[in-house]
Amino acid sequence: MRFNLLRGGVLGLLLSAFLFSCANKEDEPITKPDDNRFTAVTLTEGMDEPMEMTFLPGDKILFVERKGGVKIFDQNTKEVTLVATIPVNTKYTNKEGFTREAEEGLMGVIAHPDYEKNHWIYMYYADPVDTKHVLARWELRGNELVESSKKIVLEIPTQREECCHTGGGMVFDQEGNLFLTVGNNTVNPRSGTSNLDDRPGQENNDDQRAPGNTNDLRGKILRIHPEDDGSYTIPEGNLFPQGTEKTRPEIYTMGHRNPWRPTLDSKTGYLYWGEVGPDASTDSIWGPKGYDEFNQAKGPGFFGWPYFIGDNFPYVEHDFDTDTYGKPFDVNKPVNNSRNNTGLTELPTPVVPAMIYYPYGVSEVFPELGSSGRSATGGPVFRKADFAKDAPFVFPAYYEGKWLIVDFMRGWIYAVSMDENGDMTGMERFLPEYTFSSAIDMDFGPDGALYILEYGSAWFRGNANSRIVKIEFNKGNRKPNVAAQADKIAGAVPLTVNFDSEGTNDFDDYDQGKLTYSWSITSDSGFNQTMQGANPTFNFQEPGHYVATLSVTDTKGESNFTEIRITAGNEPPKVSIDFGDQNRSFWFGDKQMSYDIQVLDEEDGSTANGGIKPEEIAVTFDYVPAGFDPIEIASKQSGAETVAILNLGRNLIESSDCKSCHQYDTTSIGPSYTAVANKYPNTEQNTNYLIDKIINGGSGVWGDHGMSAHPSLSKADAKRMVDYILSMDETQATVNSLPLKGQIKPEVPAGENAGGSFLLRASYSDKGSGSIEPLSGVDYVALKEPFVDPQTSVDRNGVQLLTTPSINFMVQGDGSYFALEGIDLTGVSAIDVLASITSRNGALGGAVEVRLDSPEGQVLGTSESIGRKEGGGFRPPEGMTFVEWRRQQANRAKVVIQATSGLHDLYFIFKNPSAKSGETIMTVTEIEFIK
């Protein structure tokens, strides 16, 4: 069963190490354990868009993938088994007929609490035909999903014209009630704020239609009781009693934008989840900037969206017919007056504020959460009573009642402490030396370990770095921490790969220098070879997919391992964007910029020799607002990439004899390709059927004329041809691919500030080689405005960041420094450090030195020493933005630099020999790069 059944509450940190938890007299003292008592173990890698996991008996993990894969990982055998592939929809098609990749697909899974008796699992997915999301139950017998056992429990009508937000997280409570998170299924407005457009034809832009609608299941967390016959009943205590006019009784909480992974506290019954907020990076006329949230429901309630966010910050009434603004929404009397509202006008009160909320920048309330992209996932509440006494990895009593939360984008885990009423009292970083990037689900397993399901780094594709990681707590001997690298993970054979284990260690003193290293190279075809030593080299002679497993064993016999996947037999393509002498980091206001794209592939040839054709390469250019939803951007780009890949099939058709019998739109000797696409839906079964027809020939389907066989055509090439044909009746991508050589014209869209980036991206998926599937190559240029926030810096020394009453990035003491990573200096003549040095902040002033790549690196230039400069008031004059005013008022340390090209890390070192440690030299507000 999914082991987050009900958890929560809190025990505070006790000062005495002699006090024990009341849960069990044998518990260890309630003191914080050393971080090195926790070991991260990678269980499996290389999944295809994993979404959610649930635990099964026998140390098995059932997980689902967005495109429909249902898989089981067995911790004993280390094997992943494909149980079934559920037909699902994975595309949006807008009113103009353009197609893009969708967030939806197979979105969630959970095992019934009585799984050992009934073998029931529940999955939440996008119906492959009808515009609806479906909650259904199946029986899972061993590794067989019994199709005849399927029972549709609940259906939710949706729109699939526009992105985004699906939810799909599930959890059972102790009474057998099932909680299901449902996303708002609404457009992300370019303003990055709330969706309130209720004009006819704009229904997908109106969150009042769903999250703010008491009569709609979207933008909600539902609570139902699944019955044995596949139906469900409504438990007592939901938000609206059954029979209440203009309401849905399934609703437990409402007013959600994109709630993700829910959990329940087994002691209090409180519900917890992460919720992804809108993208606005600043407050505006529409209302507050965007916040992600971690929420707690002590009972049913209204959580504010689309009228309020964060600590109930109100949005502003907006009449889209006249494009005028009214007053902020009233948190004491929220009303839904939308023309699209089918529910109650007066919404429930009180409006429940978020427990934790944070913007893209540093939060003044929760500064420890940092600044960057954000995507609140959720996580479990730890209760020791939830686990068997002999569970081997149960966390210590220190974490009793704490809520462990993870953010998909930021990669941290925080432990949130609460008092006996469930009110937050504080939080601290859990394992700060680890980064848990792209965590899409996190839960405790029956063995007491914390399991993290990581989606991987790129949207809408399988990722080699997707994985399941579990965090084990070790009271005694600690397992080794294993790290492994390879200098190549793909290439033509013979392929020589150098492996190394740098970063591997063990925290037990008696194991120092005594670890043993064993590498095994295996493949699905039965290849198995073992090498000893920390840093071996291996030569792959035969094409295939290999797994290199490094196992490290300590003196007590405890082992840990990690894997690297190697593809031998196909050299990855090299894609390069020649940007000339133009800067690849910053946009300096140029009206147009030139580019030239080249692709080289060992097997396919190149763009230069014609082996790779322009239409087989996806080239996109777009403006990306600051912090804008990465899923939205990836969705648009993936459409162009899909068209480019399909063009490989079209070009194979053009170079074959197929056109002697078939035309694209008109009937010839044989049917047109359009007719074939209309006759055969794009399914795996039809694809395999047509591949066989192309290779082996046949007759009798379209008339008496037989179709010639093509026995010399590879199955892979035949599949590319079929993929193209079956896509012909589908709509086209929302973004057209650009030519390989030309000019881009950067223009900030109306209504946007210049805080975003321009993204030029080129992608090529090669034709594969023999039995080895295609590999992709990508290059991109991301151009942002030439002002950099010092909060994005790394490797800081002598830096203090204060967040109240305002954000102050202070450098203190002579020789203090920070670094900016990966900056292109091509064409940059000077760097201005914009600072505040006033009597109010007590700064002393000083000079700034810029060095390349390290604090001791080459000196690029040094500014003159700047002293105090008192400010010119607290508000900008009318008609001037605060940012413009701040830049005008700033004290500037100008560093004229030597001509330098290429990407470098830049170290900013602050000089004032009279400044003692802890004395502020200046407060840095921005860094400007000058062409």
UniProtKB/TrEMBL annotation:
Residues 634-729 form the Cytochrome c domain. The keyword Iron-sulfur does not apply. Coiled coil: none annotated. Residues 196-209 have a biased composition (Basic and acidic residues). Residues 183-216 are annotated as: Disordered. Residues 1-25 form the signal peptide. Residues 480-568 form the PKD domain. Keywords: Electron transport, Heme, Iron, Metal-binding, Signal, Transport. CDD domains: CBM6_xylanase-like (cd04084), PKD (cd00146). GO terms for molecular function: carbohydrate binding; electron transfer activity; heme binding; iron ion binding. PANTHER family: ALDOSE SUGAR DEHYDROGENASE YLII, HEDGEHOG-INTERACTING PROTEIN. This is Cytochrome c.
